[in-house]
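To: structure subgroup
Subject: Chain for Friday's discussion

All,

I'm putting the inputs and outputs inline so they're searchable in the archive.
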Amino acid sequence: MEKTAADFAHIPGWGIDADPKNEPTYPNRHRTGQEHDGYTWQRPTQQVPDHEVLHSIERPNLSAVVGNAPAPTGLSGMIRRFAFKFSENEYLHWLPLLAADKINVVEGIIEDISKGTVPNIWAEKGYNAQWKHDLSGMLVKIATAAAVTAGLVYLALPKNGRSHKASATGKYKSASKPRMVSL
């Protein structure tokens, strides 16, 4: 059962672009064949980058304007360079970029401290506003952080330091050896 244009003629606006003489861009658009190359416009002058600029492997070259963001540095920069070796449709592109952002925050704090500036993390993360407007969410955040910290401290303690006091004093014998009982 073949469908024809007449089958859809009842839909308002159907087939509006079917007549090439009635194309809305006809007098303005001059086709050059470069549409398949991705350039349907006059390319602006390329900005000369003065530092390393990472770009997708799907693009053959840099965009005309690359901005003035700082070059990738440190561990986060190494992770970003690794991520840009992969296609944008792969996890190995996006997940390392997310990790690099988190690592870059820590690097920024370390850099601030090394310059003699103590960062006000409470204010920078907006905790005053959250305390005022979302107290319950803030308390959940604090409780979660406390629980995670307590768990990490518990796991970091030596095994005998976290065992029961009675077993640490030697009052209980190890269950690994069977005891002989005489009657």
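Points worth raising on Friday:
DSSP finds six helices and no strands in the chain.
Residues 53-119 form one domain.

D.
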